[in-house]
Design brief:
Mean pLDDT: 87
Distance between the termini: 31 Å
Strand content: 15-25%
Strand order of the largest sheet: 5-7-8-9-11-10
Low-confidence stretches: none
Radius of gyration: 21 Å
Structural class: alpha/beta
Oligomer: single chain
Length: 272
């Protein structure tokens, strides 16, 4: 069992209490109070879990650097938020942890979550890298989301051409979420989950809209001449459907949730 890093604004009674409880279970802990100290202590093979307080200066940069680096992405991350500032309330672009707690919370709840994440990591899974982030529906955040997914796709195991097609599919899904789902309302959020597994890449985009009747569009994209159908709708003054065609042709699987406000893009990796 590796070290648990407690990334906190200061060493105080709370940090002492956490150290005490982890040590009771024979788990080594280290308290760091700055970004520089955190990354000095971050040896991937020796760290089993990170607990990060959102009151830490530059906490969001710490979260992003930890989860977006493929070498450290597998280290479970628990983020502690002050009351009223859990994910979904913040207006900035945030790379999320694996679990989150909002004050006030019981120390026992934090320990239970931590032990569950540690156990899950010990057992191993098919996920090579997982990055979750949420953003408000503003142009700068949409641009950053597209840029981040582009970075995550680098070296993921697909060809440069497939990489470009998958990024274009994501761009379309994100644009639909912003335009048709959230109606470009800045106070509404989009959630993105990027997951690189051993055999495939999965990207999930969720908006806060009402959804739509996606079944007929998927049916046309899969079974009919989709481009002709899109042209017919355009000539009739009806838009929509072309984006689904683009995505469907770029992916091995495309699916929506029942409501239609969440889309999952799946690209299989080459068999080795």
């Amino acid at each position: 069992m590796g070290t648990v890093i407690l990334c906190l604004p200061r060493k105080d009674r709370f940090s002492t209490l956490l150290e005490f409880y982890f040590q009771r279970t024979k788990i080594e802990t280290e308290v760091v109070t700055s970004r520089a100290d955190f990354f000095r202590s971050l040896v991937p093979s020796e760290v089993s879990l990170v607990i990060l307080d959102a009151l830490m200066p530059e906490w969001s940069q710490i979260s992003e650097l930890l989860k977006c680096d493929r070498q450290t992405s597998g280290i479970p991350l628990v983020v502690l938020f002050p009351k009223g500032h859990k994910p979904g309330n913040a207006e900035e672009f945030i790379v999320l942890g694996d679990e989150h707690l909002e004050e006030p919370f019981e120390v026992g709840s934090l320990l239970k979550i931590s032990m569950s994440l540690l156990e899950s990591r010990r057992n191993g899974n098919a996920v090579v890298q997982q990055v979750a982030f949420h953003l408000s529906t503003v142009e700068t955040h949409l641009d950053r989301a597209n840029e981040l997914v582009g970075q995550l796709l680098k070296g993921a195991g697909i060809s440069e051409g497939e990489e470009g097609m998958l990024q274009e599919a994501f761009r379309e899904a994100l644009g639909n979420a912003a335009q048709h789902g959230n109606l470009y309302q800045a106070d509404k959020f989009i959630k993105v989950l990027f997951r690189l597994e051993k055999k495939r890449i999965v990207i999930v985009v969720t908006d806060q809209g009402r959804g739509f009747d996606h079944q007929k569009f998927l049916e046309h994209a899969r079974n009919d001449d989709p481009l002709s159908k899109a042209r017919e709708r355009y000539q009739e003054g009806r838009m929509g459907g072309l984006g689904i065609i683009i995505m469907n042709r770029s992916l091995d699987e495309l699916r929506y949730n029942e409501q239609g406000n969440e889309i999952t893009l799946i690209k299989n990796l080459p068999v080795k």
